[in-house]
């Protein structure tokens, strides 16, 4: 069994552990934020961590009403410019904690008296040291280059923090149940193994979602790119209606994340439009009606909120990418040209 698959299966227990590990830090952080006049949140991240940042942007804005900006770290490291972050919460996200340019954003914010927080998988990392509050993924060593348990633990930590900050008790209760429910996805292994057979020879595909699950479309495309060497491109369905739709032709593979929730209506409109243009549609959903519209389908757990479905969709994406990589005779643990830690500045 490859490391990527082993680490996929570890995720429910990792999520339980990380929630316990960080409970006290989250309590202290949210208490601090209650007495601070936070006008903006700025998040600095790269790669898969940037997809977690997109998730956090949607969650913070919809749950707290505070606007969120995704930092351009090059402003700090390449252009050597300063921006005003005095009344901000500044969050750095890096699984390794070594993203040099994101660290510079956190350091600059700390120097201005902003509240700084980081999410990493290493308590002794430079990013953890640079921030006032550190949320520790506590996922153990991740041997596969492709991030699985570090990605979901990052997202899980972020939404636990945000739900506590926004005082959303129902969401916090749902989060407590999420790790055990996540195990239900592993029953989809045989279905996913069969599904990837038809995509064995694909060279390109589109990955679509709307709202908070757009973050997972981005993450799913990255997983397919790095493990199966497919030219996968992610779009929000709202954007795909414009110029990009012109690239759709008969049998073009399109993966659509379509969970129950606020995005269902818009996603249904896109699926029908794709069907009219004879695309090959793989639907990932917990809505039976939407699932039946796909040429292929992956079912995620039912009765989950829009803040939880991205976690299930992320795991489904990892399973799909891993099985596709193995079917193509590739090693998902060691993609060509990639290292586990990538340091940009």
From TrEMBL:
Query: GO annotations under biological process?
Result: carbohydrate derivative metabolic process
Which CDD domains does this entry report, sorted A to Z?
SIS_GlmS_GlmD_1, SIS_GlmS_GlmD_2
Asked whether the UniProt record includes Transferase among its keywords, one would answer: yes
Is-annotated flag, keyword Zinc-finger?
no
Q: What are the SIS domain coordinates in residue numbering?
A: 31-171, 192-335
GO MF terms listed in the record are: carbohydrate derivative binding; transaminase activity
Question: What InterPro entries does the database record attribute to this sequence?
Answer: GlmS/AgaS_SIS, GlmS/FrlB_SIS, SIS_dom, SIS_dom_sf
Which of UniProt's keywords are assigned here? Answer: Aminotransferase, Repeat, Transferase
Q: State the protein's name.
A: Glucosamine--fructose-6-phosphate aminotransferase (Isomerizing)
